[in-house]
């Protein structure tokens, strides 16, 4: 199993979106690449913690590739938007691709380059080694499963009910 961490605006929709694909073994929402470990949602929203709402994705690389995961990811975000996705605004809603396993980097860089070529300019998507990740509070985990019809910036046509 491999892991990749994706920040794509509100983490509720990103988690729900990726949970629908074969090869995605587990997802967990949390806060990544901030100034300290274990922030609260209130801190992330109202203080300058530097965290991004992020989804940790464990996947079976024999079933789904990093390239396929990122192709799907780019369907759900505006890759040129800075600190905003849908109605969510703030640094915690920035987009980012974070990794721990250096063997994933060439495939990640290739996918980012392909998306840049497609949109015709550099992306506003961070590409960084994961510095830290803290799971979000329990009520955020699988939020849209527990709250059907809850807010999601990802178009409904992309998410199976």
Can you characterise this structure?
The mean pLDDT is 96. The relative contact order is 0.26. Strand 6, helix 4 (105-119) and strand 7 form a beta-alpha-beta unit. The protein is of the alpha+beta class and 161 residues long. It has helices at 11-18, 41-46, 66-76, 105-119, 143-146; strands at 2-8, 24-32, 52-59, 84-85, 88-89, 95-99, 125-129, 133-135.
Number of helices: 5
Please state the average pLDDT score: 96
| % residues in beta strands | 25-35%
> Strand pairing plus helix content: what structural class?
alpha+beta
Helix content: 25-40%
Which helices and strands occur, and which strands form pairs?
Blueprint: E1 2-8, H1 11-18, E2 24-32, H2 41-46, E3 52-59, H3 66-76, E4 84-85, E5 88-89, E6 95-99, H4 105-119, E7 125-129, E8 133-135, H5 143-146
Helix pairs in contact: 3-4
Give a brief outline of the structure.
By secondary structure, this protein is an alpha+beta fold. The chain contains 5 helices and 8 strands.
Please describe the structure with a list of short key phrases separated by commas or semicolons.
two-stranded antiparallel sheet, 161 residues, 5 helices, 27% helix, alpha+beta, globular, single chain, six-stranded mixed β-sheet, Peptide Methionine Sulfoxide Reductase, Chain A
């Amino acid at each position: 199993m491999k892991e990749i961490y994706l920040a794509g605006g509100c983490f509720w929709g990103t988690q729900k979106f990726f949970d629908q694909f074969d090869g995605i073994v587990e997802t967990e929402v949390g806060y990544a690449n901030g100034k300290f470990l274990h922030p609260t949602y209130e801190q992330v929203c109202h203080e300058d913690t530097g965290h991004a709402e992020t989804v940790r994705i464990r996947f079976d690389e024999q079933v789904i590739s990093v390239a396929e995961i990122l192709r799907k990811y780019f369907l759900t975000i505006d890759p040129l938007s800075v600190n905003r996705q849908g109605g969510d605004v703030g640094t915690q809603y920035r987009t980012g691709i974070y990794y721990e396993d250096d063997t994933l980097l060439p495939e990640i860089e290739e996918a980012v380059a392909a998306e840049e070529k497609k949109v015709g300019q550099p992306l506003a998507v961070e590409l960084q080694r994961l510095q830290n990740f803290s799971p979000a509070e329990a009520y955020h985990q699988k939020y849209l499963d527990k709250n059907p019809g809850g807010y999601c910036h990802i178009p409904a046509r992309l998410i199976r009910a």
